[in-house]
Design a protein that fits this description.
It is a single chain. The chain has about 300 residues and is an alpha/beta fold. The protein has 2 domains: about 1-175, no CATH class; about 180-300, no CATH class. The chain is about 50% helix and about 5% strand. It contains 17 helices and 4 strands. It has helices at about 10-15, 25-30, 35-40, 55-60, 75-80, 85-100, 125-130, 150-155, 155-175, 180-200, 205-210, 215-225, 235-240, 245-250, 260-275, 280-285, 290-295; strands spanning about 1-5, 110-120, 135, 140-145. It has a 4-stranded mixed sheet, covered by helices on one side. Strand 3 (about 135) and strand 4 (about 140-145) form a beta hairpin. The chain is globular. The two termini are about 35 Å apart. This is DUF2268 domain-containing protein.
């Protein structure tokens, strides 16, 4: 496999040095254009037809530094992601994650991968809710992490990358379509976080799991999500997956569940599945969600004990 690392730190420095009027276009071409195929698959315009219209820059600016924010003032944060050692370790971590599948005889259809780290907007409520880091890896071949760099978040880059690698592998086998439902996304997030803890331990479990207590999971989240596993359409699914706080930010109706409800529910559902069936997380990653859900019907009624 071929892992291409986009050194965002070097691009940020180019943008710092360029005139203010040129920052947006330079950012678009250097940071976002390499992900062109991803945007096309997601049907996100690379460049809006009208001024200030929706495009890749709109998506970027929801959680990351907008081009006009890339000034010498970001140097302290930029320095934290600028070492060759860090980028080398992240490339190795990505290879390590993907090789978990190839060494178990799972031939990955995708051979070329692109990865980078984007600096987050310190005022982003989305990043605040995930304690300063998150990622995206659902389009095969393309992964990036979003980061407010500090000691806490830097320590969690590798498990976050493992989480996104798991998504990247899964969707090489599970084809996205308009019939994808909440059940699939709950299972997908559960597989990804179980894979991350399998490689790096539960001490580094993501806040999308660790911030929820057992009572909330058992008596709030599970009863609501159980009744909506079959719903389709991303706008209908996301409130249940991401929870009320993100839903409010998006201007959508809330459904009565806390932040990252689908993530924590999926994590313990998949953990239950792995313990019950004896399958490995690597084996389970490429299985249809219906196959996993059919094996754990009792999960919804049993009291889940949190692993902390």
């Amino acid at each position: 496999m071929n892992i291409n690392i986009l050194r965002s730190d070097k691009i940020y420095r180019e943008i710092i040095a360029c005139p203010p009027k040129e920052k947006t276009e330079l950012y678009r071409q250097k940071m976002l254009a390499p992900y062109m195929k991803k945007w096309e698959i997601q049907q996100i315009p690379f460049r809006a037809k009208e001024e200030n219209g929706f495009d890749v820059m709109t998506i970027n600016n929801m959680a990351h530094l907008a081009p006009e924010m890339i000034t010498p003032q970001i140097e302290p944060e930029l320095k934290l992601i600028s070492s060759d050692k860090l980028w080398g370790e992240l490339k190795q971590a990505m290879e390590y994650s993907l090789n978990q599948f190839t060494k178990h005889g799972i031939n990955l259809p995708v051979s070329n991968y692109l990865f980078t780290v984007l600096l987050g907007d310190p005022d982003s409520e989305i990043l605040r809710l995930s304690e300063g880091y998150s990622g995206e890896g659902g389009i095969p071949g393309y992964i990036f992490l979003s980061l407010l760099p500090n000691e806490y978040t830097l320590k969690r880059l590798k498990p976050a990358l493992a989480h996104e690698c798991n998504h990247n592998v899964r969707y090489q086998f599970i084809k996205w379509n308009d019939k994808i439902n909440l059940g699939e996304l709950i299972v997908s997030e559960g597989l990804a976080e179980n894979f991350a803890t399998y490689l790096y331990g539960e001490d580094l479990i993501g806040p999308w799991v660790s911030k929820t207590d057992a009572n909330t999971l058992n008596h709030v989240i599970k009863p609501i999500l159980r009744e909506h596993l079959g719903i389709t359409g991303l706008q209908q699914i996301m409130p249940y997956l991401y929870g009320d706080e993100i839903t409010k930010l998006q201007g959508l109706p809330t459904v009565g569940v806390p932040h990252s409800a689908g993530y924590v529910c999926g994590y313990y559902l998949v953990k239950y599945y792995l313990q019950k069936t004896g399958k490995s997380i690597v084996e389970a990653t490429t299985l249809p969600a219906d196959e996993i859900l059919s094996e754990v019907k009792e999960y919804w009624d049993e009291e889940t004990v949190l692993y902390r």
